[in-house]
Automatic annotation (TrEMBL):
The active site is at residue 116. One of its GO terms (molecular function) is UFM1 conjugating enzyme activity. InterPro entries: UBQ-conjugating_enzyme/RWD (IPR016135), Ufc1 (IPR014806). E2-like enzyme which forms an intermediate with UFM1 via a thioester linkage. One of its GO terms (biological process) is protein K69-linked ufmylation. The keyword Transmembrane helix does not apply. Keywords: Ubl conjugation pathway. The keyword Cell wall biogenesis/degradation does not apply. It holds the Pfam family UFC1. This is Ubiquitin-fold modifier-conjugating enzyme 1. Belongs to the ubiquitin-conjugating enzyme family. UFC1 subfamily.
Length: 168
């Protein structure tokens, strides 16, 4: 089941139309334009809702993505690097989002800092090919993962705010 807030977020993210991956040359260029348009709209929506929580950019080919994401907990901002590659079989296969600096700090993560979103997100992604894209992966994958895992890691003392880390 998807809650009302998630439904609202999803309804405000445009869906993509082009079913193309990195191997599809001209169609990939079209898909990439759709990805950027959708990401820009999602970021604008987040800013309007005072929920700005990530920045992303890609290499020239649009196959490697990187940036920052952050989570506010007890009025402190915890910032992490985020990165992922577009799979060759994209958009049939969802990208595996990674937070490398958290690698090995939680059971809900694979080697290399790839977050575990398979149980809930991957079936939803599969039902929505080619409509879902990178913005959807951020909204339905990374966002909820951060909301569950980061507070837990902070409470356990595994993740410390950078000001606390510098003073120790």
């Amino acid at each position: 089941m998807v809650d009302a807030s998630t439904k609202k977020t999803l309804s405000d993210i445009p869906v993509l139309k082009t079913k193309a991956g990195p191997r599809d040359k001209e169609l990939w260029v079209q898909r990439l334009k759709e990805e950027y348009t959708t990401l820009i709209k999602y970021v604008q929506n987040n800013k309007e809702a005072d929920n700005d929580w990530f920045r992303l950019e890609s290499n020239k080919e649009g196959t490697r993505w990187f940036g920052k994401c952050w989570y506010i907990h007890n009025l402190l901002k915890y910032e992490f690097d985020v990165e992922f590659d577009i799979p060759i079989t994209y958009p049939t296969t969802a990208p595996e989002l990674a937070l490398p600096e958290l690698d090995g700090k939680t059971a809900k993560m694979y080697r290399g800092g790839k977050i575990c979103i398979s149980d809930h997100f991957k079936p939803l992604w599969a039902r929505n090919v080619p409509k879902f894209g990178i913005a959807h992966a951020m909204a339905l994958g990374l966002g909820p993962w951060l909301a569950v895992e980061v507070p837990d890691l902070i409470e356990k003392g595994i993740v410390k705010h950078k000001e606390q880390s510098e003073s120790n």
